[in-house]
Write a structure and sequence with these properties.
The protein is of the alpha/beta class and about 325 residues long. Helix content is about 25%, strand content about 25%. It has one domain: 4-Layer Sandwich (Metallo-beta-lactamase, Chain A). Strands 1, 9, 10, 11, 12, 13, 14 and 16 form an 8-stranded mixed β-sheet that branches. An 8-stranded mixed β-sheet has the order 2-15-3-4-5-6-7-8. It starts with 8 loop residues before the first strand and ends with a strand.
């Protein structure tokens, strides 16, 4: 992420073609039971970063298909939201990153630490698969090395412990997979994921865009299609990817008038020269979506903390809309 990115952002879910659409606030539940024969979206974090907020978590969404959870992005605060929702993180065996800006991935280390603790305690041989753009493998490797340092202290009390071994003698249950192109990038017996490169890095020099990737994902489930735009500016590729989708989950900016006021405030607070302010304004206006990207998108969030969307096969065309925060 550009270090200047301090936008006022929220994630919104636009329900495009579902008859059976319900919203429930997960924080009001003691636990979130996974159900068969249904696809659900649990919005764990919806606040853009990187500045942290005391009552908001950064982007993370749980897609639950026939009871099987998949995590899309993993910003700071994700593990706390999972705990509050009553969802053991180690039950999430597949994680996807849209891109590797800090507010979309720095919560991974907390999730990995909790996963490792529970899997190791139970001698569970399961693997956690983590998919994302180039450098995802480096990110996962660095995160596991980081958590292995404190976990080595536990390992030192076990018979046969030796100092100086790789990853401090711990075996990683995490397997990374890098998405280095568009098209179908994942398929199992529940879902199929198609990736398209979006315009979030539009202002990045071309030689670097060949290395750094930001993706939007179209996820086909047995009950409908969900599209996660991730961070993006206006993009024909994303518009094409979202054609015919049932649910669109997008991160959006405030309206342009409020955004310009915010840019002015940031420039004044940080004593930016005109060139620095112009650079920040271009990033916010060209590499993100405004609320007006959808004519019907509500101006203000409706739901607090995190909520879930449920969809079933019972479809009848409608244009019900919800904004989730």
């Amino acid at each position: 992420m550009n270090k200047s990115r301090y936008g006022k952002m929220s994630i919104a879910a636009l329900v495009l073609g579902l008859t059976f659409f319900t919203v429930r606030v997960a924080s009001q539940q003691k636990s979130a039971a996974f159900r068969a024969n249904v696809t659900e979206l649990l919005m764990l974090g919806t606040a853009g970063g990187p500045p942290l907020r005391k009552d908001r978590s950064e982007p993370a969404t749980l897609l639950i298909v026939d009871g099987r959870p998949y995590l899309i992005d993993c910003g700071i605060g994700t593990i706390r939201r999972l705990v509050e929702a009553g969802i053991p993180s180690e039950t999430i065996e597949t994680i996807f990153f849209t891109h590797l800006h800090p507010d979309h991935d720095l919560g991974l280390v907390d999730v990995m630490a909790n996963d490792y603790f529970h899997l190791d305690l139970a001698s569970d041989p399961r693997k956690i698969n983590i998919y994302g753009p180039p450098q995802t493998s480096e990110l996962v490797e660095a995160a596991f090395h980081y958590i292995s340092i404190p976990f080595e202290v536990f390992a030192a009390e076990k018979p046969g412990f030796q100092l100086g071994r790789p990853n401090h003698g711990l075996t990683s249950p995490f397997v990374s997979h890098e998405v280095d192109g568009e098209g179908v990038v994942y398929r199992d017996d529940k879902i199929q994921i198609t990736a398209a490169e979006n315009s979030h890095y539009a202002l990045m020099p071309a030689q670097f865009r060949a290395h750094f990737k930001s993706y939007s994902y179209r996820i086909q489930t047995p009950h409908g299609v969900v599209v996660f735009t991730g961070d993006t500016g206006p993009s024909d590729a994303v518009a094409k990817l979202a054609t015919g989708a049932d649910v669109l989950v997008a991160e959006v900016e405030e309206n342009l008038d409020e955004l310009r006021v915010f840019i002015d405030q940031m420039a004044a607070r940080n004593h930016w020269p005109p060139a620095r302010k112009q650079e920040f304004a271009a990033h916010m206006e060209k590499e993100h979506l405004p609320w007006t990207a959808s004519e019907n998108l509500p101006r203000k969030p409706k739901y607090n903390r995190f909520s879930s969307i449920t969809m079933t096969r019972k479809t009848k065309r409608s244009s019900r809309l919800a904004s989730l925060t």
